[in-house]
Amino acid sequence: MNISEYTPSHTLLLIFAGIAGCLLVASAIGLLLRICLKDGRTNPVILNLNARINAWWVMVLVLALAFWGGNTAVIVLFAFISLQTLREYISITYTRRGDYRALLWCFFFFLPLQYGLIGAGWYGLFSILIPVYAFLLLPISSSLGVDTTRFLERAAKVQWGLMICVYCLSHVPALLILDIEGFEGRNLQLIVFLLLTVQSSDVFQYVWGKLLGRHKLAPEISPSKTLEGLVGGVLTSTAVGAALWWITPFLWWQAALIALIINVLGFFGGFVLSAIKRDRGIKDWGHMIEGHGGMLDRVDSISFSAPIFFHILRYWWT
Amino acid sequence: MLEKPLAFAFCALIRILTGTRVIWRGTAPEMRARVYYANHRSHGDFLLIWAILPPAARAVTRPVAGSDYWLRGRIRRYLIERVFRGVLIDRHIKRGDDPIGVMLQPLLAGESLIVFPEGTRNQGDGILPFKPGIHHLASIRPETEFVPVWIENLSRALPKGGMLVVPLLCTVTVGTPITLEPGERRADFLTRCQNALLALEPADSIEHEHL
Questions:
Q1: How far is B203 from chain A (nearest CA, A)?
Q2: Residue B61's closest CA among B53, B73, B71?
Q3: Which of B160, B166, B209 minimises the CB distance to A103?
Q4: What's the CATH code of the domain at B42?
Q5: A88 to chain B: nearest residue by CA?
Q6: Domain of A98?
Q7: What is the pLDDT of residues A279-289, one digit of tens each?
Q8: Which of A164, A300, B39, B174 could form a disulfide with A273 if both were Cys (CB 3.0 to 4.6 A apart)?
């Protein structure tokens, strides 16, 4: 198979058809489990599984619509994902009255500007807007609230949330501004590769964990994560990544290696954000996606893998 | 003419901005005349409660608001009188004022009320001691249900003095209705109402640390 055989839109159509096929199989399994198991209609694991699969249909549909809409639609979609994750994060994070203006700046200035810079293709400012300018300006804004109670903690937490929810996640649509020789007009496929690999890793970790999971990795951080799930999930979706080499500028072994890297990072993304949830005493970041929890529960792995994936491409392929 | 679309727009806006999750824990929205009472930390509180009601119930539910604030300026006056259909009460009571009578009228006409019995916005923890107004209403119309409503996080999204809403996620929890027991004394009734409201505060609330 050679990439030049398919037009970009043809490739995307093929892939989404493939995803829809996988989801059909998943839905069929979910239905069978519900009908055939004695307690299938009441078993919480089966109910949650079916809720997750249904949510996947919705998420894939939204993604497909955005891809159909083109680059701008994808940038806007990820801006909204950032908005939702940031509000989930800040909603359960300690801030005070004096941070009100800083929070307004986060939501109404830095977030839209970060995504606007992708649209404008201005990589220089995109890469330092939040690590430099937000980092310096937000604490200034908070200090004007003249309230020193737990000041460093508040400033640090707001900055951390902005980094994870906006800066890191914005590296997904930022893949669109990379100029890769011989790959012109196909950058949406990079996003497909990243999302499919990392999200399928989450799915396979769940599946292997439920089927074979015996040894808990760190029950005090994440009660559901098991060694078997981790190894099985990361290896399976590394294979998925390798099998997708034909939509990328990579050779098959490069695709496998990169998939392995972003899967491991993705795993630790979920792990780190779980540690934060446990510390705050909550199970999920929100209630937006039935069966999954909040938006941040769904994209925690992406936020850790996207910037590294972006830099691997930028360093070796541009 | 414009009032209905405006009311709809305000409700949609506040619900989208605050991503409000509504938990009808102790009761469902009903059409009969009742009194929703809530904790008060943000000037957006009344709008949020109004917005979570289904449109039919919203049409017969009226927020009780301070006329000293709302009657200053034509736009405010238009909003509170025509759009939100507020029941206006002067918080600085003068001789001859009858705030209980003013609140009683819509109840007797079959409409519901939204009240904040703390009387003013709370800048601290928990809730302030309730004013006796709701007890007066209860003793005149004992069949009235008093429905506790806990608003979580709106004071962070829209704090005192703020004009813009930080789009944080808010939760509104509606508890079990309370009615005045025969022979129940004022202090006991008010305490019971306060406790029912406080019981709705989420265990993992970060808001009280925030204040």
A1: 10
A2: B53
A3: B166
A4: 3.40.1130.10
A5: B169
A6: 72-177
A7: 888 888 988 88
A8: A300
